[in-house]
Predict the 3D structure of the following.
Amino acid sequence: MVSSFSPDQRMGLLPVLLLSTLPLMAAPQQQPHHEPTSKPQILAPGYSALEFVAPEAGSYTLPSLGDAANGALIDSSGKTVALHDLFDGKTIVLSFIYTSCPDINGCPLATFVLGQVQERLAADELTRSNVRLMSISFDPANDTPDVMDDYGRSFRRGGVDWRFLTAASDHELNPILDAYDQFVIRDRGPDGKTLTTMSHILRVYLIDADKRIRNVYSPSYLHPDILYADIRTVLQSN
Amino acid sequence: MKKNELRRLRASWLGAALLLLWTPQPYADETCMSPYMAKIVGQEDFVYVWTLGVEGLGDEQDKLVTIDVRPESDTYGEVVNTLSVGGRNEAHHSGLTDDRRFLWASGLDTSKIFIFDVHSDAGKPKLVKTIDDFVEKSGGVVGPHTNYALPGRMILTGLSNSADHGGRTALVEYTNAGDYVTTHWMPTDDNLQGAMKSGNFADGYGYDVRVLPRRNVMITSSFTGWNNYMMNLGTLMADAEAMQRFGNTIVVWDLHTRKPRKILDVPGAPLEIRCAWGPRSNYCFTSTALTSKIWLIYEDDNGEWQAKAVADIGDASLIPLPVDISIAADDRHLWVNTWNDGMTRLFDISNPHAPVQVKEEKIGAQVNMVSQSWDGERLYYTSSLLANWDKVEALEGEDLQYFKAYAWSDGALEHAFTIDFLAEKLGTPHQMRFGAYSLYGQ
């Protein structure tokens, strides 16, 4: 049985995310597709203790949702890599993000949850060596390999394999986003000009050692307890 | 109500806006859709009406009808697009994927599922895929009914099965792309699947599905099988044996594991399920078609899920036949339609254990579905229930097969416009879903 995180464990990362997000959140014109910022921001469930006991790993099944697509990416050292090569027979948690995302319940939520899961993976040799976390930017123009490298340094802990990746261009990236059903819109201001922010559906994917998608998570579903239980369920089924 | 009056209801410059965030605020979604779904938080642009084809009327085919509901539009209140699907399938319910890019619409007779692209041009949906092997893939499930969004996938309730076309059925999961994933059969006396049978029934029937992610709960209701829903209504009601074959259960499931936890007795065919939105509101409502009651499905102080009848809907002896229900933004009101008398009723559900009717109004000769906007200020009604159950004539002055738009203002329903689906040779209108250009950055 997986227990919930204590508030103290959560607060290690959360203030950083809030601080990095608030300046952009204070500019309503930069997020035309979001709720007015004057309302108090209510955090997604993934930031809090689960309101129910997570299911015991292996007590349920996660049927395949199809094959996880391949594609060409660039790692944080600037090297071109094939996504499938990075899967490398491991269980994968794959998240699409962009580093300047201002939505606390969007990309920062995904990175926060992966960070929390990372701590649990680190505590167990089986999971530490058989699970790989991947954060892929869908903003290749701004999220260069150097940016992703800096971003990744803030989050990697405990010897867990967490890759931060980007793409050479939208041309390389878009087929991957399409294949993973990751919908992204570049925001525009009232004057029609492109903004730095994007509207998107947050999606995180759990992929097994045979490159099959076993679960998909969105903001109201993504939680460290659930994700960790699912990872262990997939590892057991492997 | 005139166009100018509706214009003042229009939202800010944002128009219809996509809310991509997790949305814990106690808003009702439009027409009570999945909590996982992106929401239109302003004025909707279009209403998509999944419409049954009628023999001898127009092209006789089931079709997706798109109605312009933008008050400032030159085509406000008009049908701006129709997309026929090549036959009649007993068109019934529809639902959007969690990213709101695709609308799934299913047929209870043929078990076909039609997937429409509503994001490339929200005003002109395209049919991009037809699933015609639902029965085979699902292992014998018949009559896909509710098309409900879960993260990255769709879950569909069945109404029947291919073995005997009775009421035993299952839930079926698909990817958003329309690929079959798995089937979950409803628990029965023969195979409770670990669920607790709390009363007299474990009928294995299905109808609607809703979720309360906060509580890791999924709830299903129960109607009747193909043999009954495809039968002429008069014939059915005269058949005492057939009338015994209606669902009497609500099943509470573990949402994450998809395992049934508890079977609750809710006699009389519990149909639509609508769950409250408040952060501590651990309850849902349903209405029973045959006994004309509102039932509360709730988690008690001990964490146990229970069901109890909490209100009567009209005079049950007159068989008003409750159909669609819609919970309001603040969990304080519930719209309840009764098909047979064409009435819409509003209940104050501030105390969910004791709803009180506060309003009733005639909509037409018959009324089935009701969909309300995010802010609850606009309501839309359609008339059709099932091809073989619908009325074929109306009293003078009553509309028979229609789409109607209303504004809800100061406790009054203000009629905006009506589209007569028979006069327009469209068919008979059923499920409604909303669309908006701004959902897709357009």
Observations:
- Residues 23 and 102 of chain A are 8 Å apart (CA to CA).
